Amino acid sequence: MRAIRITEHGGPEVLRFEELPTPSPGPGQILVRLEAAGVNFIDVYQRSGHYKVPLPYGMGLEGAGLVEAVGSGVTEFATGMRVAWMNVAGSYASHALVPAERAVPLPPDVDARTGAAAMLQGVTAHYLSHSTYAVEAGDTCLVYAAAGGVGLLLTQMAKLRGARVLATVSTDEKAKLAREAGADEVIVSSRDDITTAVRRLTNGAGVQVVYDSVGKDTFEKSLDSLAPRGLFALYGQSSGAVAPFDPQVLSAKGSLFLTRPTAAHYTATRDELLSRTREIFGLIETGALRLRIGATFPLSQAAEAHRQLQARKTTGKVLLLPD
């Protein structure tokens, strides 16, 4: 099998394309031949060392493909089935061992590329809009990086639930994508002050929820964009980690709520994982949710995929395809 691993933390250059023995599934595992692997910002955090992982480390947490073998005790899956998964290390590879309890079957009308693109980012958009802050009709929300993989899906899901969406993007080209996803207003952060724009667009009231994946550079702007008792969902840190702050700030700015959610805690049980993914795939099948695969790279070019993702040159989902 072929795989991308790291033996040290650092820039994209530490990603190593290696030949390894193809493993056999153990009890409760399935061996999958990948057709696509998802690239996510959490991969960048792990590669760089912002999130500590044991070394050597098989990169990638998300993928989809065909089951080639099943281990003892596995009854839900059989060879030839197409499955997808998330939060399984070693997914930048031609083959992956996946715990059966973390795999989900793909519907017949959902191919592997779509399945890989829908998992981590789709589940993130779903839990943010349905659970972290359950958006309702009449709410106004602020979505950062709205032309990215999560942002495009989150914008659509919030609109499906009746919200007004204010979106932030960095360029006019990305603004077009955000509008196509349903954003009511788009703030181009390279020329507009986000807080000023939000206050203008809400007649000074602020928004009920902020979905922020940027972190350090936008933390204060996010707090200042919220209505009293609003919720700040900080689910990423593409600009770096937020510095320590005094919780009294939340009181002073309107009894605000701050949470740092992660997908693992919103798919902690198999029932919850299946419930979220079934709803996501159902929306895709009906056309109510549109996925954008913005770029694909051969597995061997994982470093270039990371470079473009970090430089914010990509939109939608980035996939690696086995060589």
CATH-level-2 architecture of the largest domain: Alpha-Beta Complex
Runs in which pLDDT lies below 50 for 5 or more consecutive residues are none
CA-to-CA gap between the ends? 11 Å
**Structural domain tally:** 2
The CATH class designation of the largest domain is Alpha Beta
For the sheet with most strands, the description reads:
7 strands, mixed
**Total count of helical runs of at least 4 residues:** 11
Globally, the shape reads globular
Tally of strands: 16
Secondary-structure content class: alpha/beta
Mean residue pLDDT:
97
Q: Assign the CATH topology of the largest domain.
A: Quinone Oxidoreductase, Chain A, domain 1
State Rg: 20 Å
Looking at CATH, the homologous superfamily of the largest domain is: Medium-chain alcohol dehydrogenases, catalytic domain
Secondary-structure element series: EEEHEEEEEHHEHEHEHEHEHEHHEHE
Strand content: 25-35%
Helix share bin: 25-40%
Describe the protein in words.
The structure is a single chain. The strands form three sheets. Strands 3, 5, 6, 7, 8, 15 and 16 form a seven-stranded mixed beta sheet that branches. A six-stranded parallel beta sheet has the order 11-10-9-12-13-14, sandwiched between helices. Strands 2-1-4 form a three-stranded antiparallel beta sheet, with no helix packed on it. It has eleven helices and 16 strands. The protein is an alpha/beta fold. The mean pLDDT is 97. The N and C termini lie close together (11 Å). The chain has two domains: 2-118 and 292-321, Alpha-Beta Complex (Quinone Oxidoreductase, Chain A, domain 1); 122-263, 3-Layer(aba) Sandwich (Rossmann fold), CATH 3.40.50.720. It is globular. β15 (293-298), α11 (302-310) and β16 form a beta-alpha-beta unit. 31% of the residues lie in helices and 26% in strands.
